[in-house]
Structures are given as C-alpha cells and as structure tokens.
Write a structure and sequence with these properties.
Elements: H1 11-19, H2 31-52, H3 58-69, H4 71-81, H5 87-98, H6 110-128, H7 132-145
Helix pairs in contact: 2-3, 2-5, 2-6, 4-6, 4-7, 5-6
Length: about 150
C-alpha cells in the first residue's frame, strides 16, 4: 500500500484563512453540495496530472481529461475504491449516491450517474475536511482500478 501524501498545510485551510471563510460543520452540507465541490477538485487533480505529462494540444488535453471525469469512469473508479474506504468515508459516498439530483448526466446510466455523484461527494468530504492526501491516494487507487494509471 502506498503512503498517503502529507502536506504542510491543507489546501482548503489555506483558502479559508486567506479569504476569511468561517468553519462550517461538514455534517450540515448536503450531499449535492459535497458533490459540487468534489467534482471541481477531482477535475483539478486530473487536469493537473494530464498537463503534467507534457505540453500537448488543448484538444488532446480535453479529450483525455473528459474520459477520466465522465460519470462512467468515476463509477468504475468507485468500484475499485470501495474496499479501501473507512466507515465514515463510505457513509459520505452512500449519502451522495442516494441523493436525489434534479439533473442527469448526458451519456450515463442512472446507476453510473448516482455512483459518480457518490464519488464526487466523497471527494468533496475529503477536501473540506482537509484530507487532501487521502483524496489523492483514493484517486490513485481508482485510476489503477480502471487501468488509467499508466495513461495519466
């Protein structure tokens, strides 16, 4: 098992401090709010990794990133990640998966979309609780689980 990345100061803590954002109890966030921020953080991680592999045309960057951030890929990653989750992480995943979303992803089954929403809620929970190293570790496990670790 790989070691979880440690950072000097957690990213969200830095943002909170710099912009004077109040601390909020994570349990008060709706699962869809967690998924909203989780989607953005996951997208940022994938974009960072893809760009870090070299300077290529923007169209190629977009295609590669889009493949990894679509609902189907997130759903598949979640299958690989599930055995690694703590009880609390699994609870946040379930809350996101079971949330009633007013929208539906294009080109995704209902099951894939719901698992992807759970995945994003989990990412949001980890980010907002300053567990960025754990977030990166689980993304890595998921990417390996879908065979994308060599591609990113």
């Amino acid at each position: 098992m790989e070691e979880i990345v440690k950072t000097d100061k957690a990213i969200f803590s830095e943002i909170r401090q710099y912009f004077h954002v109040q601390d909020v109890d994570i349990r008060t966030y709706s699962p869809l709010a967690l998924a909203y921020i989780g989607d953005g953080i996951y997208d940022l991680v994938i974009r960072s990794v893809v760009v870090g592999h070299g300077n290529v045309r923007p169209g190629q960057l977009h295609r590669h990133t889009s493949h990894l951030v679509k609902a189907y890929s997130q759903s598949e990653m979640m299958e690989a990640i599930l055995p690694e989750l703590t009880e609390e992480e699994e609870d946040y995943y379930r809350r996101g998966r079971n949330a009633k979303s007013p929208t539906m992803a294009k080109n995704a089954t209902v099951a894939d979309y719901r698992r992807a929403t759970g995945f994003e809620a989990l990412m949001g929970y980890l980010y907002l609780t300053d567990q960025f190293g754990r977030l990166l570790y689980l993304i890595n496990v998921g990417l390996r689980g879908i065979g994308a670790d060599e591609a990113v």
